[in-house]
Specification:
Blueprint: H1 4-16, H2 25-36, H3 42-54, H4 62-83, E1 87-88, E2 91-92, H5 94-97, H6 100-118, H7 123-150, H8 158-184, H9 188-215, H10 218-221, H11 227-230, H12 236-244, H13 247-258, H14 264-277, H15 280-300, H16 310-320
């Protein structure tokens, strides 16, 4: 089995060799910029790790893995534009370095580049991998639409929110794992269990992101703390705050959410104080643990030697205890 560090090194090496040589250069500079910002590279890493569980060689999974990473960064580029985010990985976002129109068009070019890379999948697995990716891409768009619609709703349920983050975040992790498994020669049953593992770990991952947006550190998180609060984004914490708040707390939350002009630090502090009063940090951590426990059961169902799953388990354990 390849070490996680070796897999990451291979991914970074392959990304650095990606060439966008078609004119005009200005269309592709933002793509090179966002890919150069780094990141966890967890999606391509999951693809290669899943492949490696079933096959000593990961070569046939390299290009599809790169395609999934390019696609992921495309979603971030458009996400940042829609959220009007200033920072991504502690660097200015694409629409801040260039402009909104450039971010839209370069993002479109990234989506095409992702399809080109995934289209390089070996013929025997091409249809299944491409179908899975296309379904995933459509689901992610649906998740983003739900996310935007939730911003103007005050009655979003926890169940609706979980479905939204399943679509927006978890399905791509699941797709990455299943793609790697299929290319490694896994059975359909094992590929399905790895997909379910990806869903559960993805839900835990996004809930951890919600938590870090409130309780993280800007220096390590790579994004401004409280960004979701400032945008009135319906996160797991806000949805449960609105559900559990007493009359006074509910009025305070709604008052802040209705304000068009406010001091950002004061709004973040006000929300955080109410979250603390309602013990939402613990509630969120309990939910994260539940999805993590479910993901462990998915791995136990795999028809492989337990030692082959050691690296995958270690990486996911690290994700669940991250600060960035």
């Amino acid at each position: 089995m390849l070490a996680f560090e070796n897999i990451l090194q291979r991914i970074e090496s392959e990304i650095s060799q990606l060439q966008f040589t078609n004119p005009p250069k200005s269309l592709y500079e933002p793509i090179e910029y966002i890919l150069s910002l780094g990141g966890k590279r967890i999606r391509p890493a999951l693809t290669l790790m899943a492949c490696n569980i079933y096959n000593n060689s990961i070569e046939n999974a390299i290009k599809p893995a790169l395609g999934l990473e390019v696609f992921h960064n495309f979603t971030l580029l458009h996400d940042d534009l829609m959220d009007e985010a200033d920072k991504r990985r502690n660097k200015p976002t694409v629409h801040k370095v260039w402009n909104a129109n450039t971010a839209i068009l370069s993002g479109d070019a990234m989506l095409i580049a992702a399809y080109q890379l995934i289209g390089s999948t070996e013929h025997g697995h091409l249809k299944q991998v491409l179908d899975l990716f296309t379904q995933t891409a459509a689901e992610i768009c649906g998740g983003q639409q739900f996310d935007m619609e939730f911003e103007s709703r005050m009655d979003v349920s926890e169940e609706e929110y979980i479905e939204m983050i399943r679509l927006k975040t978890a399905v791509l992790l699941a797709c990455s794992l299943k793609t790697g498994a299929l290319l490694g020669g896994a059975s359909q049953e094992d590929a399905g269990n790895l997909y379910a593992f990806g869903i559960n770990i993805g839900l835990a991952f996004q809930l951890q992101d919600d938590l870090l947006d409130v309780y993280g550190d800007t220096a390590t998180f790579g994004k401004n703390i409280g960004g979701d609060i400032l945008c009135n984004k319906k996160t797991f914490l806000l949805i449960n705050a609105l559900r559990l708040a007493n009359k006074e707390q509910a009025e305070a939350l709604r008052s802040w959410m209705d304000k068009k002009e406010f001091d950002p630090a004061q709004k973040i502090q006000a929300f955080t104080s109410i979250y603390n009063e309602l013990q939402l940090k613990q509630l969120t951590e309990n939910k994260i643990q539940a999805y993590y426990d479910a993901s462990v059961e998915n791995l136990k169902a795999l028809q492989v030697a337990p030692e082959k799953l050691t690296i995958l388990k270690e990486v996911c354990d690290h994700l669940m205890h991250r600060q960035s």
